[in-house]
UniProtKB/TrEMBL annotation:
InterPro entries: BPS1_pln. Residues 1-24 are annotated as: Disordered. This is DUF241 domain protein. Pfam families: BPS1. Residues 1-22 have a biased composition (Polar residues).
Length: 283
Protein backbone atom coordinates (compact mmCIF):
# COMPACT_ATOMS: atom_id res chain seq x y z
CA UNK A 1 0.00 0.00 0.00
CA UNK A 2 1.19 3.53 -0.72
CA UNK A 3 -0.19 6.72 0.70
CA UNK A 4 -1.36 9.67 -1.39
CA UNK A 5 1.58 11.70 -2.65
CA UNK A 6 1.22 15.07 -0.99
CA UNK A 7 4.76 16.37 -1.42
CA UNK A 8 6.89 17.56 -4.27
CA UNK A 9 10.65 17.82 -4.24
CA UNK A 10 10.47 21.38 -5.59
CA UNK A 11 8.09 22.76 -2.99
CA UNK A 12 9.80 25.49 -0.99
CA UNK A 13 7.04 27.90 -0.11
CA UNK A 14 7.75 30.93 2.03
CA UNK A 15 4.47 30.67 3.87
CA UNK A 16 3.74 29.97 7.53
CA UNK A 17 2.03 26.65 8.26
CA UNK A 18 -0.31 28.14 10.86
CA UNK A 19 -3.98 27.49 10.45
CA UNK A 20 -6.61 30.19 10.33
CA UNK A 21 -10.21 29.81 11.60
CA UNK A 22 -11.52 30.46 8.09
CA UNK A 23 -9.56 27.53 6.65
CA UNK A 24 -10.40 24.99 9.38
CA UNK A 25 -13.14 23.14 7.49
CA UNK A 26 -11.19 22.69 4.27
CA UNK A 27 -8.12 21.57 6.23
CA UNK A 28 -10.24 18.90 7.92
CA UNK A 29 -11.37 17.57 4.53
CA UNK A 30 -7.82 17.69 3.18
CA UNK A 31 -6.55 15.72 6.17
CA UNK A 32 -9.12 13.01 5.51
CA UNK A 33 -7.78 12.52 1.99
CA UNK A 34 -4.15 12.69 3.14
CA UNK A 35 -4.70 9.69 5.43
CA UNK A 36 -6.20 7.53 2.68
CA UNK A 37 -4.17 4.81 1.02
CA UNK A 38 -4.50 3.10 -2.33
CA UNK A 39 -2.94 0.07 -3.94
CA UNK A 40 -1.09 -0.24 -7.22
CA UNK A 41 -4.39 -1.57 -8.60
CA UNK A 42 -7.15 0.58 -7.06
CA UNK A 43 -10.73 -0.67 -7.07
CA UNK A 44 -13.73 1.20 -8.45
CA UNK A 45 -14.95 1.79 -4.90
CA UNK A 46 -11.64 3.39 -3.90
CA UNK A 47 -11.73 5.62 -6.99
CA UNK A 48 -15.31 6.69 -6.32
CA UNK A 49 -14.58 7.45 -2.67
CA UNK A 50 -11.51 9.46 -3.65
CA UNK A 51 -13.59 11.54 -6.06
CA UNK A 52 -16.26 12.11 -3.41
CA UNK A 53 -13.59 13.30 -0.99
CA UNK A 54 -12.12 15.64 -3.59
CA UNK A 55 -15.57 17.08 -4.33
CA UNK A 56 -16.01 17.90 -0.62
CA UNK A 57 -12.59 19.57 -0.59
CA UNK A 58 -13.54 21.73 -3.58
CA UNK A 59 -16.88 22.66 -2.06
CA UNK A 60 -15.11 23.81 1.09
CA UNK A 61 -12.59 25.71 -1.03
CA UNK A 62 -15.46 27.46 -2.83
CA UNK A 63 -17.01 28.41 0.49
CA UNK A 64 -13.65 29.75 1.69
CA UNK A 65 -12.98 31.80 -1.43
CA UNK A 66 -16.44 33.37 -1.34
CA UNK A 67 -16.27 34.52 2.27
CA UNK A 68 -16.43 38.35 2.31
CA UNK A 69 -13.42 38.38 4.66
CA UNK A 70 -11.41 36.19 2.26
CA UNK A 71 -12.39 38.19 -0.82
CA UNK A 72 -11.41 41.43 0.87
CA UNK A 73 -8.05 40.09 2.05
CA UNK A 74 -7.18 38.60 -1.34
CA UNK A 75 -8.22 41.72 -3.26
CA UNK A 76 -5.90 43.83 -1.09
CA UNK A 77 -2.93 41.51 -1.67
CA UNK A 78 -0.50 43.40 -3.92
CA UNK A 79 1.46 40.46 -5.32
CA UNK A 80 -0.97 38.16 -7.14
CA UNK A 81 1.51 36.06 -9.12
CA UNK A 82 0.49 33.08 -6.97
CA UNK A 83 -3.08 33.48 -8.30
CA UNK A 84 -1.80 33.14 -11.87
CA UNK A 85 0.07 30.01 -10.77
CA UNK A 86 -3.15 28.48 -9.40
CA UNK A 87 -5.16 29.63 -12.43
CA UNK A 88 -2.64 28.07 -14.81
CA UNK A 89 -2.91 24.73 -13.07
CA UNK A 90 -6.69 25.00 -12.89
CA UNK A 91 -6.88 25.21 -16.69
CA UNK A 92 -4.79 22.08 -17.02
CA UNK A 93 -6.87 20.33 -14.36
CA UNK A 94 -10.03 21.18 -16.27
CA UNK A 95 -8.51 19.70 -19.42
CA UNK A 96 -7.39 16.52 -17.62
CA UNK A 97 -10.74 16.18 -15.85
CA UNK A 98 -12.65 16.66 -19.10
CA UNK A 99 -10.50 14.15 -20.97
CA UNK A 100 -10.82 11.61 -18.15
CA UNK A 101 -14.58 12.08 -18.11
CA UNK A 102 -14.68 11.48 -21.89
CA UNK A 103 -12.71 8.24 -21.47
CA UNK A 104 -15.14 7.04 -18.80
CA UNK A 105 -18.15 7.94 -20.96
CA UNK A 106 -16.69 6.20 -24.03
CA UNK A 107 -15.86 3.10 -21.99
CA UNK A 108 -19.48 2.94 -20.81
CA UNK A 109 -20.63 3.00 -24.45
CA UNK A 110 -18.24 0.17 -25.31
CA UNK A 111 -19.58 -1.87 -22.39
CA UNK A 112 -23.14 -1.31 -23.62
CA UNK A 113 -22.15 -2.49 -27.10
CA UNK A 114 -20.74 -5.72 -25.65
CA UNK A 115 -23.87 -6.21 -23.55
CA UNK A 116 -25.99 -5.82 -26.68
CA UNK A 117 -23.82 -8.35 -28.50
CA UNK A 118 -24.25 -10.87 -25.71
CA UNK A 119 -28.01 -10.42 -25.65
CA UNK A 120 -28.28 -11.12 -29.38
CA UNK A 121 -25.91 -14.10 -29.41
CA UNK A 122 -26.07 -14.14 -33.21
CA UNK A 123 -23.27 -14.53 -35.72
CA UNK A 124 -19.61 -14.41 -34.79
CA UNK A 125 -18.94 -13.13 -31.29
CA UNK A 126 -16.23 -10.46 -31.48
CA UNK A 127 -14.98 -7.83 -29.05
CA UNK A 128 -12.50 -6.21 -31.43
CA UNK A 129 -13.94 -2.71 -30.88
CA UNK A 130 -13.88 -3.15 -27.10
CA UNK A 131 -10.29 -4.39 -27.12
CA UNK A 132 -9.13 -1.57 -29.41
CA UNK A 133 -10.73 1.05 -27.19
CA UNK A 134 -9.22 -0.51 -24.07
CA UNK A 135 -5.75 -0.13 -25.62
CA UNK A 136 -6.50 3.49 -26.46
CA UNK A 137 -7.89 4.17 -22.97
CA UNK A 138 -4.80 2.67 -21.35
CA UNK A 139 -2.47 4.78 -23.52
CA UNK A 140 -4.44 8.01 -22.96
CA UNK A 141 -4.63 7.43 -19.20
CA UNK A 142 -0.87 6.89 -18.96
CA UNK A 143 -0.23 10.10 -20.92
CA UNK A 144 -2.46 12.02 -18.50
CA UNK A 145 -0.59 10.54 -15.52
CA UNK A 146 2.65 11.85 -17.05
CA UNK A 147 1.11 15.33 -17.33
CA UNK A 148 0.03 15.22 -13.70
CA UNK A 149 3.50 14.22 -12.54
CA UNK A 150 5.02 17.15 -14.44
CA UNK A 151 2.52 19.50 -12.83
CA UNK A 152 3.35 18.14 -9.39
CA UNK A 153 7.06 18.90 -9.79
CA UNK A 154 6.78 22.47 -11.01
CA UNK A 155 8.27 25.32 -9.03
CA UNK A 156 5.82 27.48 -7.09
CA UNK A 157 5.83 31.25 -6.74
CA UNK A 158 7.39 32.50 -3.52
CA UNK A 159 4.91 34.57 -1.51
CA UNK A 160 6.07 36.76 1.35
CA UNK A 161 4.81 39.68 3.41
CA UNK A 162 1.12 38.74 3.40
CA UNK A 163 -1.27 38.60 6.34
CA UNK A 164 -2.17 35.34 8.09
CA UNK A 165 -5.47 34.79 6.27
CA UNK A 166 -3.96 35.30 2.81
CA UNK A 167 -1.04 32.98 3.59
CA UNK A 168 -3.43 30.34 4.94
CA UNK A 169 -5.62 30.57 1.82
CA UNK A 170 -2.63 30.28 -0.53
CA UNK A 171 -1.36 27.28 1.41
CA UNK A 172 -4.66 25.37 1.29
CA UNK A 173 -5.17 26.21 -2.40
CA UNK A 174 -1.81 24.64 -3.16
CA UNK A 175 -2.63 21.65 -0.98
CA UNK A 176 -5.91 21.22 -2.86
CA UNK A 177 -3.94 21.16 -6.12
CA UNK A 178 -1.50 18.60 -4.74
CA UNK A 179 -4.18 16.28 -3.36
CA UNK A 180 -6.14 16.68 -6.60
CA UNK A 181 -3.12 15.42 -8.53
CA UNK A 182 -2.98 12.36 -6.28
CA UNK A 183 -6.68 11.56 -6.65
CA UNK A 184 -6.61 11.93 -10.44
CA UNK A 185 -3.53 9.73 -10.60
CA UNK A 186 -5.52 7.06 -8.77
CA UNK A 187 -8.43 7.41 -11.23
CA UNK A 188 -6.11 7.12 -14.21
CA UNK A 189 -4.19 4.17 -12.78
CA UNK A 190 -7.56 2.44 -12.42
CA UNK A 191 -8.42 3.21 -16.06
CA UNK A 192 -5.04 2.00 -17.32
CA UNK A 193 -5.41 -1.48 -15.82
CA UNK A 194 -3.46 -4.15 -17.71
CA UNK A 195 -5.33 -5.73 -20.61
CA UNK A 196 -5.34 -9.27 -19.25
CA UNK A 197 -5.42 -12.43 -21.29
CA UNK A 198 -6.41 -15.77 -19.78
CA UNK A 199 -3.75 -18.47 -19.53
CA UNK A 200 -6.34 -21.19 -20.16
CA UNK A 201 -9.99 -21.27 -21.01
CA UNK A 202 -11.75 -20.67 -17.68
CA UNK A 203 -9.12 -21.40 -15.05
CA UNK A 204 -8.35 -17.71 -14.47
CA UNK A 205 -12.02 -16.80 -14.59
CA UNK A 206 -12.72 -19.31 -11.84
CA UNK A 207 -10.00 -17.72 -9.72
CA UNK A 208 -11.35 -14.21 -10.32
CA UNK A 209 -14.91 -15.03 -9.34
CA UNK A 210 -13.75 -16.74 -6.14
CA UNK A 211 -15.11 -14.58 -3.34
CA UNK A 212 -11.76 -14.44 -1.56
CA UNK A 213 -10.06 -12.81 -4.56
CA UNK A 214 -12.69 -10.33 -5.73
CA UNK A 215 -11.68 -7.43 -3.50
CA UNK A 216 -8.12 -7.53 -4.84
CA UNK A 217 -8.96 -7.48 -8.55
CA UNK A 218 -9.32 -4.35 -10.62
CA UNK A 219 -12.87 -4.51 -11.99
CA UNK A 220 -11.84 -3.56 -15.53
CA UNK A 221 -9.12 -6.20 -15.60
CA UNK A 222 -11.61 -8.77 -14.31
CA UNK A 223 -14.06 -7.98 -17.10
CA UNK A 224 -11.25 -8.19 -19.67
CA UNK A 225 -10.44 -11.69 -18.48
CA UNK A 226 -13.98 -13.07 -18.61
CA UNK A 227 -14.67 -11.41 -21.97
CA UNK A 228 -11.46 -12.70 -23.50
CA UNK A 229 -12.17 -16.18 -22.17
CA UNK A 230 -15.70 -16.22 -23.49
CA UNK A 231 -15.01 -14.87 -26.96
CA UNK A 232 -11.67 -16.58 -27.46
CA UNK A 233 -13.30 -19.96 -26.89
CA UNK A 234 -16.41 -19.09 -28.85
CA UNK A 235 -18.38 -20.33 -25.87
CA UNK A 236 -22.04 -19.48 -25.66
CA UNK A 237 -23.07 -21.43 -22.59
CA UNK A 238 -25.86 -19.62 -20.78
CA UNK A 239 -24.15 -19.68 -17.38
CA UNK A 240 -20.94 -18.19 -18.79
CA UNK A 241 -22.77 -15.45 -20.64
CA UNK A 242 -24.73 -14.65 -17.49
CA UNK A 243 -21.48 -14.34 -15.54
CA UNK A 244 -20.08 -11.88 -18.08
CA UNK A 245 -23.34 -9.91 -18.21
CA UNK A 246 -23.37 -9.65 -14.44
CA UNK A 247 -19.81 -8.33 -14.33
CA UNK A 248 -20.51 -5.88 -17.17
CA UNK A 249 -23.61 -4.59 -15.39
CA UNK A 250 -21.67 -4.04 -12.18
CA UNK A 251 -18.85 -2.31 -14.02
CA UNK A 252 -21.28 -0.03 -15.85
CA UNK A 253 -22.83 0.99 -12.51
CA UNK A 254 -19.35 1.73 -11.10
CA UNK A 255 -18.50 3.88 -14.09
CA UNK A 256 -21.76 5.78 -13.75
CA UNK A 257 -20.71 6.76 -10.21
CA UNK A 258 -17.20 7.68 -11.35
CA UNK A 259 -18.57 9.79 -14.20
CA UNK A 260 -20.88 11.64 -11.79
CA UNK A 261 -17.92 12.30 -9.50
CA UNK A 262 -15.89 13.72 -12.38
CA UNK A 263 -18.86 15.89 -13.43
CA UNK A 264 -19.09 17.34 -9.92
CA UNK A 265 -15.36 18.04 -9.74
CA UNK A 266 -15.44 19.70 -13.17
CA UNK A 267 -18.18 22.08 -12.02
CA UNK A 268 -16.27 22.83 -8.81
CA UNK A 269 -13.13 23.62 -10.80
CA UNK A 270 -15.05 26.02 -13.04
CA UNK A 271 -16.56 27.85 -10.05
CA UNK A 272 -13.23 28.11 -8.23
CA UNK A 273 -11.53 29.41 -11.35
CA UNK A 274 -14.24 32.03 -11.79
CA UNK A 275 -13.77 33.23 -8.20
CA UNK A 276 -9.98 33.47 -8.61
CA UNK A 277 -10.39 35.41 -11.85
CA UNK A 278 -12.52 37.90 -9.90
CA UNK A 279 -9.73 38.19 -7.34
CA UNK A 280 -7.22 39.00 -10.08
CA UNK A 281 -9.51 41.67 -11.53
CA UNK A 282 -9.84 43.44 -8.16
CA UNK A 283 -6.99 45.96 -7.98
Amino acid sequence: MASFSTKSNNRSISLPSRSHPATQKIEEELNKLKTWEFSASPTAEAVHNGLLGLVEVHKCMGDLLNLPLTLQALSQCQNKKWVNEILNKSVRFLDICGTTRDLVSQFKENVKDVQSLLRRRKGDLSITNYTSFRKKMKKDAKNLVTSLKKMDHEEVVAVMEVDQLVSAVIRVLREVTTIGISVFQMVLVFLSAPISKPTSKWSLVSRLVNKGNQDRVNEIESVDVVLSSLFKCGACEVEKIQLVQSKLGTLEAHFECIENGLDNIFRCLVRSRSTLLNVVSCQ
